[in-house]
Amino acid sequence: MTEIEVKVRVDDLAAVKEKLLAMGAAVFKERHFEENTLYDFRDRRLAGRREALRIRRIGRKTFVTFKGTPQKSRKFKIRTEYETEVRNGRSLVRILQSLGMIEVFRYEKHRTVLRKGTLLVCLDETRLGGFVEFEGEREKIARTARALGMSKKDWITKSYPALFREAEPGT
């Protein structure tokens, strides 16, 4: 599957949520806690190709996601993404370790997911502050961001790990 997304840093996620609801969006997943852990080989070959392997824990559920190399785009982050739920997260970690992979980064956030048609809008609370992440078709992302008063100059295509590393060198 191809994922198309952008993030925007915001000060007031509650106000954004209210605007989205007024625009016809609906809450798809209530606010929940996520723990995200990235794995790579010791030689960092995935990072070298700008790929990622992530394990995400949400409550008692575990998901594994592979993110491919981003495509060239000035305004959007576009990349192949494959994700599936895993029945036993501990066994998955053991499998990755047996393949020579190591944990390279961990971050946490609270997330609320809204849906407006085929567009997903995630309201993310991180230790760096609030972010709105739009995921869907380019036109729908642009239209919804514009309706929320968000300028393209505020769009962020960097991943959360990249943002954390910039803000907190040494992490």
Helix tally equals 5
Helix content: 10-25%
Order of helices and strands: EHEHEEEHEEEHEH
Q: Outline the low-pLDDT stretches.
A: none
Q: In this structure, how is the largest beta sheet organized?
A: 8 strands, antiparallel, barrel
Rg over CA atoms, rounded to whole Å, is 16 Å
Key traits:
single chain; about 170 residues; alpha+beta; eight-stranded antiparallel β-barrel; about 50% strand
Walkthrough of the structure:
With 171 residues, the protein is α+β, with helices and mostly antiparallel strands. Helices cover 25% and strands 48% of the residues. The protein is built from five helices and nine strands. The chain has helices at residues 13-22, 45-48, 89-98, 138-147, 160-167, and strands at residues 2-10, 26-41, 52-58, 61-67, 77-86, 101-116, 119-126, 129-135, 155-156. The protein has an eight-stranded antiparallel β-barrel, surrounded by four helices. A hairpin with a 2-residue loop joins strand 7 (119-126) and strand 8. It is globular and about 50 Å long. The model has no long low-confidence stretch (mean pLDDT 97).
Summary?
This protein has 171 residues and is of the alpha+beta class. The chain has helices at 13-22, 45-48, 89-98, 138-147, 160-167; strands spanning 2-10, 26-41, 52-58, 61-67, 77-86, 101-116, 119-126, 129-135, 155-156. It starts with a strand and ends with a helix.
